[in-house]
Design goal:
Number of helices of chain A: 0
Largest sheet of chain B: 7 strands, mixed
Distance between the termini of chain A: 40 Å
Number of helices of chain B: 0
Helix content of chain B: under 10%
Number of strands of chain A: 11
Radius of gyration of chain B: 13 Å
Low-confidence stretches of chain A: none
Mean pLDDT of chain A: 96
Number of strands of chain B: 11
Shape of chain A: globular
Structural class of chain B: mainly beta
Distance between the termini of chain B: 35 Å
Oligomer: heterodimer
Order of helices and strands of chain A: EEEEEEEEEEE
Structural class of chain A: mainly beta
Radius of gyration of chain A: 14 Å
Strand content of chain B: over 45%
Helix content of chain A: under 10%
Strand content of chain A: over 45%
Mean pLDDT of chain B: 97
């Protein structure tokens, strides 16, 4: 079945780095746009980053622009989020989420992973 | 950035009742709006996209309407499994944005 599984979360200190992974299965990963969405404890959802299926376009939330980098490895069916210069306000559950359109833009998120927790604390 | 304002913040209702949730956008998003349901400890689930199209496997008691800046999610007859938090999301502009959520709780 279609599935996304995140990993790589953990506890880090402010200023440190972390790389999240999202392994996809059950669909042709190389043909779908992918996103990262986060949710701080007890708060709502915040879109973080987008990558077009072919890697030609990337967008970021202002809150992470210049610190986070989204990438993908189609040979491994895996999406990544490299997070540098982490701040306490980056503490959240990070979800990867798939766009439903094949090789096109939709913009909604039809499949979500279970999430991985990132805690930034001194 | 497009701001989405959901109302009410909390809706208290009984099983079998109809629930109506609202989402207002700070500028037009056409019909590029989605609704999600999130239960405690779970990832969100897509309910509606294109303002009114139900996602795969979503029961017919869920319906969406609206365009431009005013949108509504209706649940015709609340079931026990529908008590959750609901979010709207626009994908007309970058950055993608979500509303702050409406909690549907048992009265």
């Amino acid at each position: 079945q279609v599935q996304l599984v995140e990993s790589g979360g953990g506890v880090v200190q402010p200023g440190e780095s972390l790389r999240l992974s999202c392994e996809a299965s059950g669909f042709t990963f190389s043909k779908y746009n992918m996103n990262w969405v986060r949710q701080a404890p007890g708060k709502g959802l915040e879109w973080v980053a987008f990558m077009r299926y072919d890697g030609n376009n990337k967008y970021y939330a202002d809150s992470v622009q210049g610190r986070f980098t989204i990438s993908k490895d189609n040979s491994k069916n895996t999406l990544y989020l490299q997070m540098n210069s982490l701040k306490t306000e980056d503490t959240a559950v990070y979800y990867c989420a798939k766009d439903p359109a094949v090789a096109a833009y939709s913009g909604s998120f039809d499949i979500w992973g279970q999430g991985t927790m990132v805690t930034v604390s001194s | 950035e497009i701001v989405l304002t959901q109302s009410p913040a909390t809706l208290s209702a009984s099983p079998g009742e109809r629930a109506t949730l609202s989402c207002r956008a700070s500028q037009s998003v056409s019909i590029n709006l989605a609704w999600y349901q999130q239960k405690r400890g779970q990832a969100p689930r897509l309910l509606i996209y294109g303002a009114s199209t139900r996602a795969t496997g979503i029961p017919a008691r869920f319906s969406g309407s609206g365009s431009g800046t005013e949108f509504t999610l209706s649940i015709s007859s609340l079931q026990s499994e529908d008590f959750a938090v609901y979010y709207c999301q626009q994908y007309n502009n970058w950055p993608r944005t979500f509303g702050q959520g409406t909690t549907v709780e048992i009265k």
